[in-house]
C-alpha cells in the first residue's frame, strides 16, 4: 500500500518547460538532475523543444498546455536574438508580451485560461547571458551570441565554451561548473523591460529557480 502511495506521489506534479534551443533543453535537464534533487525527485520536469519556433507558435504551445490542466506550471524560455533582428517577429513578441504579461499586471482580465500557472523567462540575446551573470553584474547589450561569446570565454571555467552536447555534458557538466556562482547570478538577474530590451541585455532565468524553491520540501 505504501509503495502504491509513493508511486502516485511521483506522478502528482508535472512542469512543462518550453524552450527554443537545444542548449536551453540541456541546461534545464541538468537543473532537474542537480538542483535540490531531493525536493524535486517527485516532480516531472519536461523540457520540450518544439519543431516550430516562431514567437506566435511558442506562445500557442504554452496556451495549449495551460488549457490541458495537466501541468502545475508552464514555463516558456525565449531568446531574443533572432526576434530583435526581425521587425515582424519583434512586433509579434511585443503584442504577446502585452497580452500575457503587462495587461494582467495592470489589472486587465485575461482571456487566457490558467494564466496564473504561466512563467515567461527571457534571455537577451541568448541563454549565455545567464551564464555571464554568474560571474559579473552587467546589462551590456549584445546584438548576438557571437558578440557575447568573447566576454563569456573570459570567465573562469567557461574559457572553451561552445554550444554542443559534448561541452554541456562533459565532466564537470556545465551546471556543476556554474553552481558555485548561482546565488550571484540570481542576484544579477534583473526584471525584463520591453522598453529597454533593444538597448540593454539581461536574463530572467532567476525566475526558474525562484519557482523551484517554492517546491522544496520543508
Architecture overview:
The protein contains 12 helices and 5 strands. By secondary structure, the chain is an alpha/beta fold. The radius of gyration is 18 Å and the shape is globular. Residues 1-12 have low confidence and may be disordered.
Summary of the model, kept short:
This protein is of the alpha/beta class and 218 residues long.
What sort of overall outline do the alpha carbons produce when their principal axes are compared?
A: globular
Q: How is the largest sheet built, in terms of strand order?
A: 2-1-3-4-5
Number of strands: 5
Mean pLDDT: 88
SSE series: HEHHEHEHHEHHHHHEH
**Helical stretch tally:** 12
Low-pLDDT segments: 1-12
Helix/strand/pairing category: alpha/beta
Largest sheet entry: 5 strands, mixed
Beta percentage is 5-15%
First-last Cα distance: 24 Å
Helix percentage range:
40-55%
